[in-house]
What we know:
There is one protein chain. The protein has 245 residues and is mainly α. The protein folds into 2 domains: 2-95 and 103-115, Glutaredoxin (3-Layer(aba) Sandwich), CATH 3.40.30.10; 126-236, Up-down Bundle (Glutathione S-transferase Yfyf (Class Pi), Chain A, domain 2), CATH 1.20.1050.10. It has 8 helices and 4 strands; from the N terminus they run E-H-E-H-E-E-H-H-H-H-H-H. The chain has helices at residues 11-23, 42-47, 66-77, 103-110, 126-156, 164-187, 200-211, 221-232, and strands at residues 2-5, 29-30, 55-58, 61-64. Strands 2-1-3-4 form a 4-stranded mixed β-sheet, with helices on one face. The longest helix has 31 residues, at 126-156.
Amino acid sequence: MLHLWGRLSSINVRKVVLCAQVLGLELPRTDAGMAFGVVDSPDYRARNPNGLVPLLQDGDFTLWESNTIVRYLCARFGAAPTLPAARGSLPPEGAPPCLGRPGAAALLGAAPTLPERALQLYPQDLQQRFNAERWMDWQQTTLNPAGGPAFRQWIRTPPAQRNPQVIAASVAATEPLWAMLDAHLARHAFMAGDALTMADIPIACEVHRWWGLPQPRPHWPHLERWYAGWLAMPASRGVLDLPLS
């Protein structure tokens, strides 16, 4: 049975939750980290010696590192072209989002441009797979470190203690990366080509975080088109519509 530890205020936890919802998985979650504690307990440290979130448990197997967890879930549940585990119906109008629902079948209903054969989140072709892997690594090693300081200043630093120079440096480092991404999406429907893959998931969470900051940003039409597609997916509810904290 799957279980996730981590608070939804963490971008890294949101990646895993978004992945689970696209796959249509039930993923019980225990809040952990920051005000919730848990991560310094001996039991948690035995499972994740880093004391960070997220942490995934699948039976006797435990896994940490958010993008690795996304890869694992996509390989385990999203390698079949039609994602049979994701079949389900939309919740009633106004119902709160539930982890793992409505899944990819409902996602298709909201986004008819995504044929079922395209929902192979973990590509079987080696070059396609590593194209997706590349963008996941880029998110974690390049985009996240660039944008993180502005997020922490705006959202997690009291106004009187904010440093405008830190924010400006983060914006200067991040905006060229968004421009590069916009140029890439001018040529491709999704991060790794013409189909939604695991690569799109962590970058969608990065866009959600950057878009949520109280600061102006340039117009990136192709990136905005791609992200609007995410927001139209029922599977994004409860993740990409959350306020930052």
